[in-house]
Amino acid sequence: MDSDQRHMVRALELARLGAGRTSPNPMVGAVVVVDDEVVAEGWHESYGAPHAEAKALESAGSTARGSTLYCNLEPCCHRTPDKRTPPCTEKIIDAGVSRVVFAVYDPNPHVAGLGEQALKQAGISVTYGVLRDEASLLNEPFFAWIQRSVPYVHLKIAATLDGRIASRDGSSHWISGEQSRIEVHRLRSKYDAVMVGAGTMISDDPSLTVRHVEGRNPARIIVDSGLRAVPGSRMASDDAAPVYVLCTREAEIRRGGELAGTKVKLITCPTDASGHIDLFVAMQEIGRRGITSILVEGGRGLATAMIRRHLVDRLSVYTNPSLMGAGVEWLGDIGVEGAESRPHLRCVTTRTVGEDVLVTGLIDPARTYGSLRAPGEGRAFDQMAGVLCLQD
Ligand SMILES: NC(=O)c1ccc[n+]([C@@H]2O[C@H](COP(=O)([O-])OP(=O)(O)OC[C@H]3O[C@@H](n4cnc5c(N)ncnc54)[C@H](OP(=O)(O)O)[C@@H]3O)[C@@H](O)[C@H]2O)c1
Predict the structure, then answer these.
(1) DSSP readout, 296-360?
(2) Would you say the CB of residue 230 lies under 6 angstroms from ligand 1?
(3) Is 158 found in the same domain as 305?
(4) Is the CB of 164 under 6 A from ligand 1?
């Protein structure tokens, strides 16, 4: 590992300290280096807080003059009405930094190569691409959301060896082992929102909060077209995190009153040919609210509809070495006719988690490659192909 890589590893470590708190911004870390020695560090702690580069430069003070600044993302260079912090490029130039090393371009159209350009125009030497894949992986959901305006979706399933997610009576508690459950709670805390369907609400009445590990609670999103599940649920009256319910306008008129006095927010959506809410429109509505990433936790109806509509980026199945026989399978008809046309996961990893086996990979090339390679995306987006072969 050369010295640039070593300092970028540190920048990535710092960036990760903001996990779960920076959205809809990316996680960024920065290191100020003089004569191969780190003189200051910073990271973006939360949305609205100073950027990593600004924090590191502030702590470096006058030692930043002539230094090299390492950051995992191209420094920002823009001012927009909704932006809470000044451009980092100006701070870098003012501080007298002589070289900037960054890992990936920022696909935000306000930056996308312009940050690099501003630095070069000021006579700063710029190196791009150090640990590019690692940096792409770190902010995979942000990169996906900023380009598509719909959230990055990770579908997580816990199933038995015979592919069941619940028993015949509908109960699904303790399908996976303890280690997997802890891991899923950690995963929850990293996503902006967790989503389940009406069926799961009715059978399990889950709270979808983060327990077993430290972390913030994600927002809860319930697909409940007819508002048959959320009124009267535990979630409707707790304050643990925001609750968004996707329902039809008709359901809002008919049953919305039952949620009066609660903090539940209804998002009305049109229905599609199946009579359920149109999940694609729903994803656009959610993305518009600044929710960049969703962990979908079932059940069968929602998982099937999301895959069928090409709305899932990553699929993770935790398989427990047990059998259910009769019971709820995790997936229904996703429109596959012959075996040859079945979708294959890409960039797959398999590992054991306690007693379970986790298989995780990217599910839908149409969703990722299609949106990342639109005409005119240009250089800043070429690197995104690398993102597609990485995991959480
Ligand atoms: N082991 C696990 O990982 C796990 C996780 C979660 C749940 N579960 C189990 O799974 C079972 C629940 O599964 P489920 O299938 O009954 O419920 P579900 O998936 O939680 O709910 C069905 C949802 O799918 C929606 N839906 C169905 N077809 C759709 C389409 N074409 N377009 C849009 N939305 C569509 C329904 O919409 P409407 O809004 O129109 O009703 C409903 O919200 C429970 O037994 C639960 O315990 C297991």
Answers:
(1) E---HHHHHHHHHTT--SEEEEEEES---SSSEES----S--SGGGS---EEEEEEEETTEEEEE
(2) no
(3) yes
(4) no
Q: Are residues 239 and 158 in the same domain?
A: yes
- 275-312 pLDDT, tens digit per residue, is 999 999 999 999 999 899 999 998 999 999 999 998 99
Active site residue 53: yes
Is there an atom of ligand 1 within 6 Å of 297 CB?
yes
Chain CA centroid to CA 43, Å: 19
Query: What angle do the packed helices 88-95 and 114-121 form, to 10 degrees?
Result: 20
Task: Return the DSSP state at 383.
Answer: T
Q: Do both 115 and 168 map to the same domain?
A: no
pLDDT tier at 141 (50, 70, 90 boundaries)? confident
Q: In this structure, are 209 and 133 located in the same domain?
A: no
How many domains, in total, are found in the chain?
A: 2
**In this structure, what are the phi and psi dihedrals at residue 311, rounded to the nearest 5 degrees?**
-110, 5
pTM, rounded to two decimals: 0.83
